[in-house]
Write a structure and sequence with these properties.
Distance between the termini: 20 Å
Shape: globular
CATH class: Alpha Beta
Strand order of the largest sheet: 1-2-4-3-5-6-7-8
Largest sheet: 8 strands, mixed
CATH topology: Rossmann fold
Structural class: alpha/beta
Radius of gyration: 15 Å
């Protein structure tokens, strides 16, 4: 596990690179939620399961979190910093999968088509603000790319509908933090990666 910082147009971003035991099959880049970090239980579980399945995992900490702020930056700034990190990684020889939880899932979804990601893993995609279903963010889902959404059935941010190439798996009894049964959530994510040839 290697921790480094790289400069982005929005300040330093953190990168934690976790290598599998053997040659990597793919690269999974994961972003955190608005108020949390890369040590959220679902991200930790997915990281562990993916690296065990031959995936190189890169966990990205947005500049506002590196700077010690809790309030997230605007969407455009998050996307800009994420883009700088992905370009720094320079992955050209392996399938590149974007992912993240909540706000990080939105960043992954918005940037994946532009940056050439092969697919998207969205954990707790926040379909709308709590209590405001009319403010849907469904148009951020990249319907033309293989995308897996893992949401809890008790998520106050809502659950997206499957559309295009977007698959949705609803985790019973789970809320927005997806803490309930994270091992199964991670196993479902790796099964999806494996089905596309992105995990061993």
């Amino acid at each position: 596990m290697t921790d480094t910082e790289i400069m982005t147009p929005r300040g330093p971003a953190g990168i934690r690179l976790v290598e599998p035991a053997g040659p990597p099959v793919s690269v999974l880049v994961l972003g955190h939620g608005a108020g949390g970090g890369v040590d959220a239980p679902d991200l930790v579980a997915v990281r562990a399961a993916a690296t065990a399945a031959g995936v190189r995992v890169c966990l990205v900490t947005q500049p506002y979190r590196v700077a010690g702020r809790r309030a997230p930056a605007p969407a455009g700034q998050l996307d800009e910093a994420w883009t700088a990190v992905v370009e720094h990684l320079g992955v050209h020889d392996l399938p590149l999968i974007f992912g993240g939880r909540s706000s990080g899932a939105r960043v992954a979804c918005r940037t994946a088509p532009v940056l050439g990601a092969a697919g998207v893993l969205a954990l707790a995609f926040p379909l709308h603000p709590p209590g405001k279903p009319e403010k849907s963010r469904a148009d951020e889902l990249p319907t033309g790319l293989p995308t897996l959404v893992l949401n809890g059935d008790r998520d106050p941010f809502g659950v997206p509908e499957p559309v295009g190439r977007v698959e949705v798996i609803v985790r019973p009894g789970a809320t927005h933090d997806l803490r309930k049964d994270v091992r199964t959530t991670a196993a479902l994510a790796v099964d999806w990666l494996r089905a596309h040839g992105w995990a061993g």
